[in-house]
Inverse folding.
């Protein structure tokens, strides 16, 4: 996909917001039309598969994705950017890797990239994986991976959840999961939605410009967003327990 213009816009946005490049200080400047969901291919993927992904990226409801084409421990971002404008066949450096290996790469090189100008280009909590089973399935599937907080987890627990589902279902959940408005377990069970936080956990209030004016919000850091979501989940769990006692 050609994304050079969008990348330049996001680089400027990241500089304007003065984002820090430390892991827990990264501001989650997610924008559903410009932030890219990384896709890691663990097998050779036919063009038809990517064409189906593209069908969910229209002008009205854009969910952009970007195949990760480098596994360099030192130059990943530079190589990914160079491959965007290349006429050569895209490399697939993660063939044969495990999801745990992909997760380690995501955390080290995309979520907490050393190049602070790239912050906001990629998601913070979610990424996609495609393996041979996904390619061969009917309908085609992908593995939606998220380490967002979920019900039943300890306060400081950060656990990767892997959700294999049809492409349509996965693409429909990407933005909601990344903004922490739903949990991974709710993505698997859309009829079991419990939490709808407004403002979303990825935003934090910073005050009012005027005494009677509206509240102004900033993007939360990764740590702040996790803490906000955990508080919301605890409130729901406590309310459920209280309701059970009354019954």
């Amino acid at each position: 996909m050609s994304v050079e213009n969008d990348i330049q816009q996001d680089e400027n946005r990241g500089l304007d917001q003065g984002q820090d490049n430390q892991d827990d200080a990264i501001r989650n400047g997610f924008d559903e039309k410009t932030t890219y969901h990384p896709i890691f291919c663990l097998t050779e993927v036919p063009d038809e598969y990517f064409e189906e992904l593209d069908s969910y990226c229209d002008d009205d409801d854009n969910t952009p994705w970007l195949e990760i084409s480098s596994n360099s421990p030192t130059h990943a971002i530079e190589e990914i950017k160079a491959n965007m404008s290349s006429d050569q066949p895209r490399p697939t450096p993660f063939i044969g890797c495990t999801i745990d290996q992909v997760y380690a790469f995501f955390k080290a090189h995309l979520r907490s990239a050393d190049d602070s100008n790239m912050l906001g280009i990629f998601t913070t909590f979610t990424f996609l994986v495609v393996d041979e089973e996904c390619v061969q399935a009917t309908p085609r599937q992908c593995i939606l991976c998220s380490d967002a907080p979920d019900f039943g987890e300890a306060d400081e627990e950060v656990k990767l959840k892997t959700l294999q589902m049809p492409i349509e279902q996965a693409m429909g959940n990407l933005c909601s999961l990344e903004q922490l408005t739903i949990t991974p377990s709710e993505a698997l069970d859309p009829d079991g939605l419990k939490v709808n936080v407004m403002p979303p956990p990825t935003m934090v209030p910073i005050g009012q410009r005027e005494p009677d004016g509206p509240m102004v919000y900033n993007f939360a850091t990764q740590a702040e967003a996790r803490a906000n979501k955990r508080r919301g989940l605890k409130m729901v769990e406590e309310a459920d327990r209280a309701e059970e006692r009354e019954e």
